Every structure is written in structure tokens, then in C-alpha cells.
Amino acid sequence: MKKLSISVLLLGAVFVSAQELEKEKQIEDVIIVGNRNAKRTKLETPVPVDVINIEKIQKSAPQTTVQDLLNYVIPSFNAVRQSASDGTEHIDPMTLRGMGPDQVLVLVNGKRRHTTSLVNYQNTVGNGSVGTDLSTIPVIAIDRIEVLRDGAAAQYGSDAIAGVINIILKKDIGASASLNYGLSGRNDGETYQGAVNYGTSLGKDKSYINLSLQLSQRGKTTRTQNHKLDIFGDNFAYEFAPNPAIAEQADDAMISQRGLTRDDFNFQIGDAQIKQAQLFFNAEYPFNDNFKLYTFGGFSLKEGQGFGFRRLPSETSNIVSSIYPNGFQANLKSQVYDLSYAVGTKYNVNNWFFDLSNTFGSNTFNYNVNNTNNASLGAKSPTSFYAGAHSFLQNTVNLDVSKNLNNFNVAFGGEFRFEQYQIKAGDEASYARYDINGNIATPGSTVVGNGGSQSFMGFSPDNALKKSRHSTAVYADVSYDLDKKLNIDAAARFENYSDFGNTLNGKLAVRYEFIKNYAIRGAVGTGFRAPSLQQQYFNNSYADISTSGIGIVRKGIFTTDSKAAEVLGFDKLKQETSVNASLGFTLKPAKGLFITLDGYWIGVKDRIVITSNITDERLSDPELVGENNIAESGRFFANAIDTETKGVDLVVSYDWKLAGGNLNINLAGNYTETKITDFHFPQNLGTPQNEFFGPDQINIIETLSPKAKATLGLNYGIGKFNFLVRNTYFGKVIRDGYPFGGVQEFAPKIVTDVSIGYDITKNVNLTIGANNLLDVFPDLQIYENSYYGVFKYAPVQMGTLGSYFFGRVNFTF
């Protein structure tokens, strides 16, 4: 009979042995997240929890990062690589149950993990939000992942509106390693990954230290076609010709006359190149049976290279023709440093469990722009620029106290969290505009060409800032279990933020097994999400010539405490509030067969989004906003909408002994629908809705992600062989190209993954296989949404990689 010998960390509060709990039984997954009772399995929780055995899945799956693995295992989870979207190319936004990236809380070993410093603002999925970069945690360091698909703000605080992802690090004694190589069916996107994990005792029983090192590289991909643009500006009308082929023929003629080829003007559009190094650790040392010290954390360095829009020779205000006679396509190089560590102690006295910890995390994102120019400097312009940086740090002090009293489990605690956000200015030439004498332009001076580094303009001293806040929380949980027939959880949390005040939230969850192995479960609770510091203070403005002729003006994204926001009547950001309700069933009708079906409803008021580009003449009046703040247009973060999300999750798992082997059949599906139910306009703002929060922004919230998604996986092991076949269904997606394009519906698609694994020896396994074996892509974009044919595919549904083939060798020692 198989046994589970790892120890379970109950949110840092309770420490028990899962082997003792499940002795002499078939192992089911003991759940940490979602409650403070370590005696429950995933079918005994009042709310749905997925448990992902990373070692088992990663060995056979084509995916190599945490977010990619989850994307093909959990239907309500979505993560799609973006193209030509500045920093969002380098950190994939991920969502759960159709909500935003910032409405999912990520824990590591039950402790809150920091978010990135990056704000998604390039009209991608999660526009205006700040998420957590799961790719900073190496897969080889992870034992399992628990995904709580239910609102849990009353238990864990801000961000847990859609659910919680809890990553449990390895505690193994021993060593393992893996080597992975992959290549797309178009001979690009080449992937290398090498990883090693080593665990050993610290010289005392039940002590351990586990270390993981992972190095990886993902090559760029090109998913575009020759553009149909009027490259040289000689035949402008051809851009809008009914037959785009006419424009292409005209371009070909002009290219040939200049002794060039079309390759000199091709766009690089596809997945960004990513290089990454990660080092993680997890350790615990018991001084005696009652007192233990633990620590965990890691460091990640990610270097990315993505590409912006090409600047064509006809764009004389954007290029220096003496440097780039044929135009150029700038590339954005990032350096992302991510650091985290936690230190804590666990103490047991008379079966009261105390856990006191300090968890620190920071994320720094540096921007470098190459192969570009500052057109206002002319021939003196550099071609590479440091464009600045932003960073975010978070430090959390947490105390958990709990005690199990027969059928009752009581837990309570407190938390103090400090957060800081900073924007650093780049090189002067990355943001400034110069006059013909090489001095910074002032109103009335003569300038030729646009200022700042093209494609990505650097942060200026006006953008630079350092802001911080703190919050204090107290919370309590009570759970009641009656012979695994009746489970009741109640939780409450009071939190005070230094920048916007207090919030009180509660949750009640119940599970009742009315017949053996058949249970009904449900939950209702309130939640909140504090506006992130990034949403409160991110600003990215720049100087440009006014179309109304008043000289140099300011455009960009403005903070809600700016003079521009005050003039237009924008309020400062406040917390989102939510109500979350769920009702479901769990069934175990036969040995090896598990079924869960859960419906949910999430209502969010005052949801924080970024507005469309707002034009208002008051922004151009220096008497109203000040000489340094005049602007023709701007975008603002605002509590602009209310939303309603409803959906259903289905999970069916069956283990079947077949023909001398073991077959696991796993069917999982999700349907989610989000609607905007109300808009909140500033009273002073006369802007129409299409300019305040336009159709393209509504599209991102309601229809840009698949409403339906499902996976059917067949995993068969016999002897030394293991076979995987998995089909993933991505439902219909709608994309609105407003204001420059049209509305397009993308048909549902099915992606097939296959792999074959073979145990060469007891300690060496070889796996080969493919993701998207049949080379399925989203539908071709309609012409008006494709930037004249450049963007052949939109990064929706499964992304734009196409077929991907891999080989992996796993070692255990």
C-alpha cells in the first residue's frame, strides 16, 4: 500500500504527519489551503481545491513553467503569452475563474507571496492589473500545487477574490535532476532547461534542507507575414486599397528600385526570448519535539527580449534617416530580479500550535531599449537607452495560533504588512525632447522629430517616485468536523490599511455527506481587494507637440492624486468589494472514481481598471493643471465598473487497472461568464463612455478569454512505459479592435498533447512528446485588426506557438 511520508505545513500554524493520518489507506491529497484543519482531503473540503502533483505531471507534460503547466491542467486557469506589449511580453498575466490577475492570491508554503512591480497596460488580458509571476519559482523545487477555487479574502486578506494558489516546496531527502530540450514545428522558440534538486538532513531527525537550481532559455518566435504597408510614403492611398495585394505590389516595386529585399522590412512579432536562472531553498530544523525553525525562499534573474512596432522610412518624425535609412524595429530588453525569503518558528505547547514568521519579497524590472533612436537629436542620437525601472517590495510579519479540540479546530492570528513601490528615471535621452541646438525643448523652441526612445519611452524624473504603506490585520477561523459527515468552516478578518481605511469580511462554508461518498457543499462570503501601490502610483507620461498648437504638452498615464485627475474629478482609488457564493457536489460512486461539480457566483463592486484614452480641453489649460502638467489626453486608474461573474467547474477522475497497467482518466471543464453591470463616471467628466471605458476595454473584461475550457487526459502506465494523451478545448473568443479595427469571433479550438516515457533504469527516465501535435492556431485575424497584415494571429486561446516537440531526461539519485 502506497504511503505519503511528507509532512504537512498548515499555513505555518499546524504541523502534522500526513503518513500518520493516512496510514494503511489509499492516499488522497491532504489539503493545506482553504482551511486550518490538516485532517481533510480534497473531497472533504467545503470548497473546491485542486491538488497538482508536480513531479508526476512535469515528467510527462510538454510544459516547463508553472503557469504553462496549470494552463493545461486546470480549466478555470488561463495564461497566454502576449506579443509586442512591452513588459507584459516578459511576465505572462494569469487569471482564475475569469477574474483579473490581481484577484488571485499566491502563497508559498502557506505564506503570502509578493506580486510583480509590472502593471499590465497594453490592452492585454488583465489590463490595468498587477499579478504574481509564477515563472519565478522553478518547477523542480515544487512538490505540489493546491488551487483553491473559491473566494478566500476573509481567510487570507486582499487579492483572494477569485481564489488562492498555494505552492508547496519540496522537503525530499535525496537528489534529482532533469534536462529538457524543445523546438517548435517552425524551427524557432528553441527551449533549453536544466535543473537539479538536492535534499539532505541537517544532522537531526526530521530536519532537512532542500536546494533547487534551474537554468532555462526560450528562443523568440516569429508569427507574422510580410506587411502590406506603404513603406516609403510614396503611395499613401494604397494602405486603404480594397485589394491589399495592390499595396504590396507597389511596395515590392519601390523596394526593388532601392536594391533592397522585403526581408529588410519584416516585422518580428511572436513570443519574446527569455533567459532565466533560479535558485530556491526550503529548510527546517527541530530543536526538540516542540520547537522548530524553518526558512525558505529563492532568487530569480530573468532577461527578456521583445519587439515593438516597426518604424518605417516614411515615418520621418520617428526615425533618424541617416542612422536608419530603411527604418527600424526596436527591441525591449528587460532584466527582472526577484528575491524572496521567509524565516519562522513553530512552537507546540499543550497542543496549542504557534507559528511566528517574517516573509520578504521584492521584484525589480529594468528596461533597456536597443536598435532605436531619439528622433529629436538627429544624427547625434544614441541607438540604445536605459529607460528606467520600477520595483516593488513587501514584508509580512505573521502570527498564527491554532488548537484542535476533538471535532473543533480553532485558529486565530494577526498580520502586519509593509509595501513599497518605486519608479526610477531612465537616461535623459530616453524621455526628453530636444531642440535643434541639442537643448531640452521648451514651449516655442524649434524641434524636429519626436523625443524619447522610440517604441518604449523612458521614465522621466516627473514619473519617478517612491511610495509606501502598511496594513494590520486580525483574523479567526473555526472549523467543525463530525465523523467526516458534516464540515463547517467560519472565518472573519478585520484589516486596516494606512492609505484607505478599514475592511471587515467573513465567510461561512458547509459540507454535508448525506450518503456515504456523496456530499453537498457550499460557501458564501464577502471579500475585498486593496488597490495596489502600482495602480495608485504608476505613471508613464511624456512630452509631445500639441495638435492644437500650444507647444510641448504632456500625455500618458496619470496617478489619481495628480492635478490632472483632480481637474477631471477622479476620486482616489478605494478597495474593491465582493460577494462570493458557491454550491457543489462531491461524489465517489466507485473505487477510484472521483467527481466534483461546483457552481459559483462572484459580484465585484468598484472594480479597479484603467480607463481608455481621455481627451479633455481642461487638461490643456495651464491655469487649471499647472504649466508642468498640461496634457491633451490621459489614462487613469479608477473604480470604474461593477462586474458579475458566474460559472461552473466539473472534475472527473478515474483510476482503472487495465491490461496489466494503470490508466488514469481525467476530465475537467469550466464555463465562466463575466458581465459589466454598472459604470462609475466622475461627475465632472463630460467624456462619452467610448472614451472613458470603450468597447475594447469592455471586450477585455467580458469576452477576450475563453468562456469555456475543458481537458480530457489519458495517462497509462505499464511496466517501464508511460503514455499520455491530452486534449484541451479552448472555447470561442471575441476580440474588438476598437477604435481602429473591427469585432472578430475566434472559433473554438482543440489542442492535443502526447508523450511517451520510458524508464531506462530505476533512476533514469526518458520522455519525448509534443504540445499541440496537430499545429492548431487561433483563426487568422481579420485584416483591419492585423495592422495591415503584420499581426497574422492574435495571442488568444492557446497562444501563437503552434506545434512544439520536446525531449526530457529525468534522473533520481
Short description:
The chain has eleven helices and 36 strands. The strands form five sheets. It has a 22-stranded antiparallel β-barrel. With 813 residues, it is mainly β.
Give the overall shape, derived from the CA principal axes: globular
Sheet-strand content, in percent, reads: over 45%
Average residue-wise pLDDT: 88
Structural class, judged by helices and strands? mainly beta
- What CATH calls the topology is Maltoporin, Chain A
Oligomer: single chain
CATH H-level name... which superfamily? TonB-dependent receptor, beta-barrel domain
The biggest sheet, with number of strands, parallel, antiparallel or mixed sense and barrel status, is: 22 strands, antiparallel, barrel
Task: Enumerate the spans where pLDDT stays under 50 for 5 or more consecutive residues.
Answer: 1-28, 234-242
Q: What separation lies between the terminal Cα atoms? A: 23 Å
Count of strand segments: 36
Helix content: under 10%
What is the CATH class? Mainly Beta
Radius of gyration: 27 Å
State the helix count.
11
Domain count: the total is 1
CATH architecture: Beta Barrel
Polypeptide structure, described:
With 813 residues, the protein is mainly β. It has one domain: TonB-dependent receptor, beta-barrel domain (Maltoporin, Chain A, Beta Barrel), CATH 2.40.170.20. Helices cover 8% and strands 49% of the residues. The chain is built from eleven helices and 36 strands. The protein is globular and about 80 Å long. The model is unreliable at 1-28 and 234-242 (pLDDT under 50). Residues 1-18 form the signal peptide. Keywords: Cell outer membrane, Membrane, Receptor, Signal, TonB box, Transmembrane, Transmembrane beta strand, Transport.
